[in-house]
Every structure is written in structure tokens, then in C-alpha cells.
Structures
1.
Amino acid sequence: MGRAQRQCQVYRQSLQQASALLQDHFSEENGQARGLRERIETLSRREVQVTLPDLAPALKALQAYVQQQETPESAAPAEPAADEQEAQRT
């Protein structure tokens, strides 16, 4: 089950819990509670969809960066070591 689907289930369960709490602790005659129950019912009928962003460009950039960092320094022109420089002077 995908993350988005789990989040949708959690959302629906939360609405059900809120509705149950209102029913258990508030009278049907309480106008504010009745209004809130109606709003929860409206929300529960709505289709919830989560659109996840396309991470492919970011992944490619990260892979290129990692590859660049892993490239051995010997591939780049290196300066001679201090001992080699001293040997060349004599």
C-alpha cells in the first residue's frame, strides 16, 4: 500500500473518530455540534487525492553529484609532491 493511500485512510479514520466523539458527547439538538457533524459528513464524501511530485530530475542531479564526488582525484591533473619538487631542483 502506498504512502498516499495510507494517508488517505488515516484522514478518513480521523473523520470517523471525530463524528463518533460528537455523537457520544454532544446532543443532536446542539446546533454547533450538528453543524460540525454535517461538515464532517461533507468532508467524508469528498474524494481525497494526493499528487506526489516527480522526483526524477532531482534524483538524476543527485546521482550526477555523487558520481562527481566519487571520481578519483587521480583523474584530475595533480601537482607533484613536495619531495618530487625538491628532487627536481637538485
2.
Amino acid sequence: MTSSRTMSQLSTEDVNEET
């Protein structure tokens, strides 16, 4: 999890990156 990203972004962007 990156500090620069907000919870809203984690729901969409980071999920797509990690999968």
C-alpha cells in the first residue's frame, strides 16, 4: 500500500495493479 494513494484510489487503482 502506498502512502500517496487515498482509500478511494486503493479501491480501484491498487486492486487492478495487484491482481
3.
Amino acid sequence: MKRMTSILLLSAAALASCAAPASDQRAGSGQSKDVPAVRVVGTPVSCLPLQSIRESRVRDDWTIDFRTNGNRWYRNTLPNRCNSLGFERAFSYATSLTQLCNVDIITVIANTGGSGPINRGSCGLGQFTPVELVK
């Protein structure tokens, strides 16, 4: 019995040493503690015109910030976790409209450096909330 307890304790210690530090991810949820704080400055919208999007910044598996004309920022908090998005920090989308909307699907892209990019999965977008990044 004593030997079995020792084996279990060693196994638990080995597993704990493999876990990501809590400072990197919040309880394994894919949410980074490094997502910049924002102040909401308007009512969420369902779509952004494609021609107005100047930049996108993936913050974690749940959050993408979009910069539009006039240096306005919109935070999109995904309704569900998008695995690998925060790690890969790259995505694509296809739309037949001139807008990117909360009903659209993004695809996480991994650049392997070899035979080209690999799709890592797809996720739905959320509402686009106008925000100011808190300095």
C-alpha cells in the first residue's frame, strides 16, 4: 500500500511539472492575462465594413482586436474558445459580403514553414464592441 501511494504521488508530481504556469494561461481556458484592458465607448455592432479594417490583433483564444479607419478599435470576444488562435495568432475568413460579421467563421492558420499554411480549425465571431485601449 505504501508503495502504491508513493507511485501515485510521483505521478501527480510529474503531471504537475508539465502544466503551463498559471501566469501564462488562466486555468487552461486559453485566456491570456496579457490581453490589454479596454474601456467600452459605444454600442456593439454586428458587422465591420471590410474596407475599414486596417489591422487585427489576436490577443488569446477568445479575443481579437480590430483597428479601423480613424484609429478606432473594436474588440471581438468570441462566443466560444477558438483553440490555437492565441498561439498561432493568425486567421483567415471568407465572405461574399463587403463586411465581416458576427455570423462569419474564421479559420485558424498555422504557418509550418514547409508545405504552406495548415488550417487548425474554425470558430464563430462575436459582436464587435467599440473600445479604447487603456494605456
